[in-house]
Amino acid sequence: MTDHLLEVQDLSVQFHSAAGTVNAVNGVSWHLDRGETLAILGESGSGKSVSASAIMNLIDTPPGEITQGRILFEGRDLLTASAEERREINGCRIAMIFQDPLSHFNPVYTVGWQIMETLTAHGRPKEEARSRALELLHRVGIPEPKAAMDRYPHQFSGGQRQRLMIAMALGLQPDILIADEPTTALDVTVQAEVLALLEELQQQTGMGLLLITHNLGVVAETADRVVVMEGGRIVERGTAREVYHNPRHPYTCKLIAAAPGKGEMRDSALSGEPLLRLEKVSKSYGTFTALKGASFDLRAGETLAIVGESGSGKSTLAKTLLRLEEPSGGRALWEGEDLFAKTPRQMARVRRQLQMVFQDPTQSLNPRMSVFDLISEAWVIHSEILPRAQWRDRVLQLLSQVGLQPEHAARYPHQFSGGQRQRIAIARALALEPKLIVCDEAVSALDVSIQAQVMDLLAKLREELGIAFIFIAHDLPVVRDFADHVIVMKNGKIVEQGTVRVIFDNPREPYTQRLLAAGLDPDPDVQAARREAREALERRAPMQEPA
Amino acid sequence: MIVSAPVPDTNHRPAQRLFTVLRMLWADKFAFCAALFLLVIFACALLGPAALSEAASQVNLRGRNAPPFSLENGWQFLLGGDALGRPLLARIIVAAQNTIMVAAGAVACSMVIGTTLGLIAGYAGRRVGQVIMRLADIIMSFPSLLLAVIVLYILAPSVGNLIIVLAITRIPIYLRTTRAEVLEIRERMFVQAARVMGASTPRIVFRHILPVIVPTLMTIATLDFAFVMLAESSLSFLGIGIQPPEITWGLMVSQGRSYLTTAWWLAFWPGLAIILTTLSLNLLSNWLRTALDPVQRWRLELGGKKT
Question: By the CB < 8 Å criterion, does A378 face chain B?
Fold first, then answer.
């Protein structure tokens, strides 16, 4: 027997559901030592989170069942330990942080109270807990720790909440910290900060860090070793550098190939009258101005990317443009006519030319309508497009155009995977034969390989149909491969715009430079260089986190 | 999660559809029994008064408070006789018509009016919504029975007026539920997607929002069915509802109340009829909710295997 800090041996977990038994994890083994970072990399459904849940005793039995294997923590098998013993270990020796910190904080208690609770629950006296909590808040870089103790979770930004979560997890100086997608919900710049914080804390305390992620960039930035999972099995393991440069398993090769940001940048040579011209469009909610005088041109067949952090106003811009939100000022000229001056009836007619694909296809498709109904609804609303007799053939044609099968027409949205649902949403947008499709974070909820497929599909449709795209994203590499022009937004303002080559190769604004530097590259060597660049930038002009 | 549920028939012939519905009903045995029971009640309501009204109102002093389960006085006395010696079984069958008419009428009216107002209050502008909600508050702040007493005291008590009064007092329940749900659902992505496609307001409301709310409303309506039956009985008890010799189950229960210690069956059988009807409606609405939901429908399509 070896003396690893934590070792998972031959673990298998099954889930019993109505559809049958699912082997979530099948004979998985890995280990973690003090002071090292192990990344478990996989897409959704690969079982990457299941072994961590087993360690923390978070698997509900039933429907889950641990059929075989051992989890050794300092040589002790956790699976045979009593509930009492496991509570002693959870939170105290092994701590965990989650993807969405807002949903893991109780909204009715102050964060100070919640951090102290971890300590008092493990028997520390109250005064000691209080001083320790203060120290932790200071440690993770929360401004004014004293005042922060008495604030509630909603009063912090996403990045700060993740820091609070880390502070909570570190309260009892655990030997192991499990981070389940800790930065997936965060902006790129905040993601970089949180990862840097985790690494720094690890170096100081010497804890083992288990990082569960789907993002190759995160692996490249932080991990010493990596385990790649697919379909509940480990398909590849090794150091991060080794796995990236010499992948042996086809799945790993596919994952690495799917990572965006390596293709050729497009050089657009479009000229002529703009299809859409925005002039000083603004939008305010009460006294808060979400959008300040945005202006740009878009030509037919052109792809415009809008990038920026959350709260920069990029989604507001799209919604205002489509009149889902009423604008506060400015003009939007669509083929010379002002969209904002149109009556609802006139607007309804124009809508077929401007379509939108939303971020989360699970929510943007009505769950009670079959795929056929979803797509053909377009023709119910705009009956001039297609006579009823041809609906059936056209639906089948659209389905094959987006890479789905004819028999899918009779099914309902819940019977599809996330990527397939997004294809349905795209088919629905195409049914109206639009000239412009606005994609609001249309691929950011998808797995990397699915994301690549959907991007390929969009590129194909652009070539075949000459549709213009406004592509809103926080993920810069995706934009790099796809867009002609890029607009960078910050706090409701357009801070920089230009062709994709100019923005990516010669960014002028410090904000743009920072955004680019914060992006994570899947190649560990490239990423190391990029980190140095970022730190240099940081030294010159320290970033302030938005309050 | 991909569930490989059988693809629904693309062939929409009515006969085939009916067969699919029946098979799904058979898959849920409780709902199947409930449907059968409701069919029987419906038949009673339709045919009962024509066939048995004479027997039901015939006073037979030898059969006063006759105990149930004896056939001495004929099959109509299987469930016993009431205080005037009228056969309970026949009376229950005859009373089905009035009971179901009042309850179904009141529930249907309040549901339709309440849902419509709720949709308007939820989807239209702020001001319209406020006006509708304050109206609902007024109705709710008024004790419903008191309102009914006043109205029925002024108007003549009749089945029609009774339905109107009961319907008005129950409107706020549907109105408030509908409005709350609309406010939530109108912000969902698929509603936004429909707006982007240029869908008209009626289309969004009736095609996208209403179907999501209907299961909730159906559940409330079935529960309300029992409430309305009992409310009607209290009004009848006060003499401003259904007037004897007309009968309803609720009236039979309240008439039998004074004999509870000596002849329990007077109140028990009509009470049982109320309970079974409500229970059946509940089971059936439960089934309907599953059958109408594409995400849940496979449970019935699999042929009723317990999961």
Answer: yes
Distance CA A485, CA A299 (A): 11
Bond preceding residue A62 cis, omega within 30 of 0: yes
Residue A419 in domain: yes
Q: Residue B189, Cα to own-chain centre: how many angstroms?
A: 33
pLDDT for the residue B7: 41
pLDDT tens digit sequence for A7-38: 888 888 888 766 677 788 888 888 888 888 99
Taking the C-alpha atoms of residue A176 and residue A172, their distance in angstroms, rounded to an integer, is 11
Overall residue count recorded for chain B in this entry: 307
Is B7 in Cβ contact with A407 (below 8 Å)?
A: yes
Q: Which of A316, A321, A364, A380 to mutate to test the interface with B (most CBs of B within 10 A)?
A: A364
> Considering the domain boundaries, does residue A498 fall inside one?
yes
Note which residues in 321-350 of chain A have CB less than 8 A from chain B.
Answer: 322, 324, 347-350
Nearest Cβ partner of A363 from B188, B197, B203? B188
Q: Are strands A436-440 and A337-338 parallel, antiparallel or unpaired?
A: unpaired
pLDDT tens-place string over residues A129-187 = 888 888 888 888 888 888 888 888 888 877 788 888 888 888 888 889 998 888 877 77
The three-state DSSP-derived secondary structure of B71-104 is CCCCHHHCCCECCCCCEHHHHHHHHHHHHHHHHH
pTM across the whole model: 0.77
| ipTM score assigned to the predicted complex | 0.72
- B200 contacts in A (CB within 8 Å)? 348, 381
* Overall fold of domain B18-301: MetI-like fold (1.10.3720)
Residue-range definition of the domain harbouring residue A453: 276-508
Instruction: Search chain A and give the residue with CA nearest B189.
Output: A364
Rounded CA gap, B89 and B56, in Å? 8
Cα–Cα distance measured from residue A157 to residue A165, given in angstroms and rounded to the nearest whole number = 12
Residue B296 with chain A: CB contacts under 8 Å? none
* Record: contact A364-B192, CB cut-off 8 A: yes
Q: Which of residues 17-46 of A touch B (CB under 8 A)?
A: 18-19
Q: What residues of chain A lie within 8 A of the CB of B1, using their CB?
A: 19, 414
Q: Is A5 exposed, middle or buried (0-12, 13-18, 19+ CB in 10 A)?
A: buried
Closest CA to A463 of A325, A240, A301, A224: A301
Distance, in Å, from the CA atom of A42 to the CA atom of A228, rounded to the nearest integer, reads 6
Residues of B with CB below 8 A from A360's CB?
189
Supply the CATH number for residue A320's domain: 3.40.50.300
Which among A415, A317, A346, A318 is positioned nearest to A374, based on CA atoms? A415
CB contact under 8 A, B193 and A365: yes
Spans of all domains in chain B: 18-301
CB-facing half-sphere around the CA of B61: CA atoms within 13 A: 0
What dihedral angle (degrees, nearest 10) is formed by the CA atoms of A231, A236, A239, A242?
-130
Query: Chain A residue with minimal CA distance to B11?
Result: A410
Q: Does B293 touch chain A (CB under 8 A)?
A: yes
Tally: H helices and E strands in chain A: 22, 20
Residue A319 lies in a domain: yes
